[in-house]
Q: What sequence folds into this?
């Protein structure tokens, strides 16, 4: 029968001493390791998130630049005439499609590597925690409760031996010392080495995560380079559009020059015709006037012998057949 | 068929009958008299071409006219035929065509001489001689004064025009002046 007597005070003291010792030797290092692990795990997560953010920002920047390039191309297109416009549009459309395709490809790659890194960390974290718990307690429990479990046999034993006198007290002290020594030995031999091993494992995993992080960063770098190349490609395309447009413009201008030359030629021809016409008119006027004056002169001057001669001369030349 | 050619066929038919009867000169004379009457009385055409009057009545009018002129039966029938065929309007042309056929039969040609002033018999004779030489026909000349010709002369013979006028020469001169102006 369990009853409350003075041994309860000894038990409480023993428990508090054990708690202090355990706190020093066990709780603090374990919590320290746990904290360290948390920090490292969380740190990796944060870093991965950072990469994600960077990529997102990069994508936005890329989109922004793409829009800028597009806007510029639009301005040029508006400036150049319709034929140039159509072709320019096609090329820009193609360029945009190419850029989009490449961007999508890059995004997919980035997403893949990001997911790989994250899932590696996520997979590893619970497994490590679980294996620590299992190796310590041989049953699944939240990690923070594990350290309290060695107290359970002590409390139950103290309760059973509660009815005995001073020899019981001695036993209890021996029991306590043995417990402390036992716990210490267990700590030294098993738990500590295990925790250290686990810490090593975690460190190894952290290193792995570091590698994965480096890989992610390498991916990011690659992505940035690709963006850089894409921008160069866009500029190239823009240049190409501009050159083509200029050529087209030149062609159009050539045509215009040809038309202008034709018009000038036509004008010259028309002018020549009009000059010819005017010349003819002048000549006609002169001829008319000359003939008119001659007519009046003849009318005044003609004498019968002139008429006689004219008639006879004509008769001489006259032929009917 | 053109009016001229219809008129010529009528004239040809009439002169053929006249030659058979050995009376083509007489018919020609009677025809010209009739033409003169119609020329002097344009109303006659209107009456004779008007279908309001029946054909016998109109024929009676031409018969009466021919009787008054003392025309031969052939001419009377001929005019009646023209009324019946509604070809009376061609009478004057038939007259001209008949005259030409008469001239052909007689080895004659009629020529009209135009000059700004009278040419005098010597020149007319020279023209007549020259045309006779060219046509191998007797030439019957008529004269028409045309001051606008200024000098020289023009001969019209059937459809032929021979222009030896100063006016024509001046026109040629003008053409030559304009040539090469382009």
A:
């Amino acid at each position: 029968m369990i009853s409350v007597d003075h041994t309860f005070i000894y038990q409480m003291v023993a428990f508090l001493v054990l708690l202090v010792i355990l706190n020093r030797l066990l709780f603090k290092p374990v919590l320290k390791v746990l904290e360290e692990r948390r920090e490292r795990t969380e740190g990796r997560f944060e870093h991965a998130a950072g990469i994600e953010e960077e990529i997102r920002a990069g994508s936005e920047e890329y989109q922004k630049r793409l829009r800028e390039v597009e806007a510029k191309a639009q301005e040029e297109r508006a400036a150049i005439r319709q034929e140039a416009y159509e072709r320019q549009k096609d090329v820009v459309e193609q360029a945009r499609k190419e850029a989009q395709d490449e961007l999508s490809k890059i995004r997919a790659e980035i997403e893949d590597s990001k997911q790989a890194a994250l899932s590696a960390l996520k997979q590893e974290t619970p497994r490590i925690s679980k294996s620590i718990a299992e190796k310590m307690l041989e049953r699944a429990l939240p990690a923070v409760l594990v350290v309290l479990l060695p107290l359970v046999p002590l409390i139950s034993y103290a309760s059973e031996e509660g009815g005995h006198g001073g020899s019981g007290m001695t036993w209890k002290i021996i029991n306590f010392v043995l417990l402390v020594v036992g716990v210490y030995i267990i700590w030294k031999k098993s738990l500590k080495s295990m925790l250290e091993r686990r810490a090593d494992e975690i460190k190894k995993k952290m290193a792995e995560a570091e590698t994965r992080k480096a890989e992610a960063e390498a991916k990011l770098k690659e992505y940035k380079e690709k963006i850089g190349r894409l921008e160069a490609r866009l500029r190239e395309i823009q240049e190409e559009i501009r050159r083509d447009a200029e050529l087209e413009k030149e062609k159009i201008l050539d045509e215009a020059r040809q038309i202008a030359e034709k018009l000038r030629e036509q004008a010259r021809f028309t002018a020549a015709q009009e000059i010819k016409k005017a010349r003819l008119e002048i000549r006609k006027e002169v001829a008319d006037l000359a003939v008119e004056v001659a007519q009046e002169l003849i009318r005044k001057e003609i004498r019968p012998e002139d008429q006689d001669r004219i008639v006879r001369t004509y008769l001489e030349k006259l032929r009917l057949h | 068929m053109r009016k001229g050619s219809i008129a010529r066929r009528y004239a040809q038919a009439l002169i053929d009958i006249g030659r058979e009867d050995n009376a083509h000169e007489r018919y020609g004379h009677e025809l010209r008299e009739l033409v003169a009457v119609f020329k002097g009385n344009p109303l006659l055409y209107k009456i004779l071409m008007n279908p309001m009057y029946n054909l016998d009545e109109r024929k009676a009018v031409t018969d009466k006219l021919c009787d008054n002129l003392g025309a031969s039966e052939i001419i009377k029938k001929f005019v009646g035929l023209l009324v019946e065929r509604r070809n009376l309007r061609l009478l004057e042309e038939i007259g001209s065509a008949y005259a030409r056929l008469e001239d052909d039969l007689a080895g004659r040609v009629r020529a009209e001489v135009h000059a700004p002033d009278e040419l005098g018999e010597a020149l007319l004779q020279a023209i007549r001689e020259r045309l006779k030489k060219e046509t191998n026909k007797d030439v019957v000349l008529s004269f028409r004064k045309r001051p606008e010709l200024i000098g020289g002369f023009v001969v019209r013979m059937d459809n032929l025009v021979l222009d030896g006028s100063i006016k024509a020469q001046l026109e040629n001169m003008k053409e030559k002046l304009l040539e090469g102006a382009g």
In short: The radius of gyration of chain B is 21 Å. Residues 3-20 of chain B form the longest helix (18 residues).
